[in-house]
Amino acid sequence: MSEAQSISGGQSVARELTAFQNNILTILAKEPMYGLAIKRELEEYYGTEVNHGRLYPNLDELVELGLVEKSELDKRTNQYSLTDEGYEAVLDGVQWSLSKIVTDDDRADEIRQLVDESY
User: Fold this and answer.
1) Class of domain 8-118
2) Which of 31, 67, 111, 118 is placed for a possible disulfide with 86 were both Cys, Cβ 3.0 to 4.6 Å?
3) CA–CA gap between residue 61 and residue 65 (Å, rounded)
4) What angle separates helix 105-118 from helix 84-101, to the nearest 10 degrees?
């Protein structure tokens, strides 16, 4: 079993990620991207500049954890994509979030409809 799959108690290591790291995974769930494209997506979400010194160490950690795969597009550009474990981490986070915020059936249906419409 890989480090990304479990930690003590069988809990996914993805549950130990920072919000920033989870946002990176969410962005990569749509499609593989190179670093600057990820940076732009994050800046759009946060409404402020994302420092290279913050982005790339977090990408490297996600690679080390087996949640993201890094490949070379050309000599100067790396592409990042989710691994199967990375997709599982995103799904786990969404499922957990929905289980915590949905308290009545009408709201649950509304949220499910929004999620379905986005795909």
Assistant:
1) mainly alpha
2) 67
3) 6
4) 150
In whole angstroms, what is the distance from residue 73 CA to residue 51 CA? 22
Residue labelled with tokens 């592409």: 79
β-pair type (78-82, 33-34): antiparallel
Reading the block at residue 82, the tokens are 């989710």
Q: Which residue has the tokens 């649950």?
A: 108
pTM > 0.85: yes or no = no
Answer whether 79's CB lies under 8 Å from 36's CB.
no
Helix spans in 1-119 (H):
19-30, 35-46, 52-64, 84-101, 105-118
Report the pLDDT value the prediction gives residue 100, as an integer from 0 to 100: 73
CB hemisphere CA count around 26 (13 angstroms): 13
Q: Which pair of tokens denotes residue 37?
A: 């494209």
